[in-house]
Amino acid sequence: MQKSWQHALIIGASSGIGEALARRLASQGCLVAMVARRLEQLERIAEEIAASGAPKPLLYRHDVCEVECVPALFQKITHDLGGLDLIIYSAGIMPILAEHEYSLEKDLATIDVNVRGAVAWLDMAAERFERAGSGTLVGISSVAGDRGRRHFPVYSASKAFLDTYLEGLRNRTGRYGVRVVTVKPGPVDTPLVKGLKNLPFLISADRAAELILKGAHRDGVVYVPRIWRPIMAIVRLIPSFIFKRLNV
Ligand SMILES: NC(=O)c1ccc[n+]([C@@H]2O[C@H](COP(=O)([O-])OP(=O)(O)OC[C@H]3O[C@@H](n4cnc5c(N)ncnc54)[C@H](OP(=O)(O)O)[C@@H]3O)[C@@H](O)[C@H]2O)c1
Fold it and tell me: Can you give the residue range of the structural domain that contains 74?
């Protein structure tokens, strides 16, 4: 019987995968702290969760670009929750670039949310879990991190950073009882991919959350759904001179 989580913190919980994870964890009796910028969205989700009879989540308005606020907010949240055994960093942006567009503003925003925010939150959790000798730390990466994609150079690079960073955390904290899980979803039907075409093996956010929570009981890298593991193993083998001709 797998042990269920009691106190979870989700950063990027106001929509999509983060929202679905919060709903699923709460339905299992877990007290969830939900973090995002849109407090009204968080309030609506929390009301619905409470109405279903699950523990009402705790809500925190926060912009992950404000990394200097993270240490104090992390301490407050763990105190309010009364503990922490699971953290999930799901905040992420993927600005659309036009064919000839190079936007430093979009690129730096992507690095701020997908990289700097992730490090600010996950370093705090890694330190706490290492001291406690237990805890599960989950980063929502992407299959996009496995190759440099012509449509999303900085988004792909931000996820490759997350993959390597999480591997390092796993190797650093595993010996102290901490579980570190890298989640690499393919397309998931959320606002992030709204308007995009050609989304193979598209799954719902709820299905993604189900697979993520199942996968998070084991240390390592989880492709969501599993079909992406063999697909990306092949994609990684495509020589660069061929990959650069593909429109992916
Ligand atoms: N959907 C996909 O196909 C797919 C595939 C692979 C990986 N992913 C990854 O999955 C994760 C979740 O994405 P999603 O699909 O669920 O997208 P989403 O519905 O757009 O959710 C993104 C979440 O990130 C939060 N966020 C964005 N910027 C933030 C900021 N500056 N400060 C705090 N929170 C911020 C948003 O909250 P606020 O706007 O309220 O702040 C929202 O809760 C992302 O890391 C994404 O890269 C998604």
Answer: 7-243
Which residues sit with their C-beta closer than 6 Å to ligand 1?
12-18, 36-38, 41, 62-65, 90-94, 113, 140, 142, 185, 187-188, 190-193
Q: Look at the chain and report how many structural domains it folds into.
A: 1
Say yes or no to pLDDT of 3 above 80. Answer: no
> How does strand 203-204 pair with strand 188-189?
parallel
Rounded to 5 degrees, φ, ψ at 36 are: -175, 175
Catalytic site residue from 155, 165, 176, 223: 155
| pLDDT at residue 233 is higher than 80 | yes
Is there a catalytic annotation at residue 102? no
In this predicted model, what pLDDT tens digit does every residue of 144-188 receive, in sequence order? 999 999 999 999 999 999 999 999 999 999 999 999 999 999 999
Is residue 2, in this structure, part of any structural domain at all?
A: no
pLDDT per position as a tens digit, 170-180: 999 999 999 99
**Residue 248 domain-assigned (yes or no):** no
- CA dihedral (235, 111, 201, 224) positive or negative: positive
